[in-house]
Write a structure and sequence with these properties.
mainly alpha; about 70% helix; about 0% strand
């Protein structure tokens, strides 16, 4: 966007490459500084960054459960008309996504929060990633089947 405001003409492919390189460098510098300062323990910067990565992963697995299930249900075909339809809403996807995140909570095993299952059975470790993916995928598949049966779509 800043290239555009400065009047510099750059192709979309080059913009993506520059953005990827820029964010990659920023990520490298942040990671390097976290490791270099030696604050990798639970109370240090590294522990906070690790917790941030874990918690961001919880929503990512639920999101992937919905997206990959939708892709499988559509057999790899994308209905591009829905991308531009302002009246289309996929509440089933949002509901399955939220169910997947909620299902992660009892299985979380982090320094900030230990869920009920992880606390009761510590030998299992952190199963929230797998549980969140499976629950969101199953919920979206079940809700999508009811939609397909209701409106006659396959």
């Amino acid at each position: 966007m800043s290239f555009l405001s400065m009047g510099v003409r750059v192709t979309a492919r080059r913009r993506r490459a520059l953005a990827a390189a820029g964010f990659g460098m920023v990520g490298f510098v942040v990671g390097f500084l976290v490791v270099k300062t030696g604050q990798v323990g639970p109370g240090g910067t590294g522990g906070a960054y690790e917790n941030f990565l874990f918690f961001s992963t919880y929503w990512i697995v639920a999101f992937l459960g919905v997206v990959l299930t939708d892709w499988a249900m559509r057999r790899g075909r994308l209905d591009t008309v829905l991308l531009f339809d302002r009246h289309h809403s996929n509440w089933r996807g949002v509901a399955a996504f939220l169910l997947g995140i909620a299902a992660c909570v009892p299985f979380m095993n982090q320094s900030l929060y230990v869920g009920w299952v992880a606390g009761t059975y510590p030998q299992t470790g952190d199963l929230s990633f797998a549980v969140g993916f499976v629950v969101s995928a199953a919920a979206y598949w079940l809700l999508g089947r009811s939609r397909a049966a209701g409106d006659g779509a396959g």
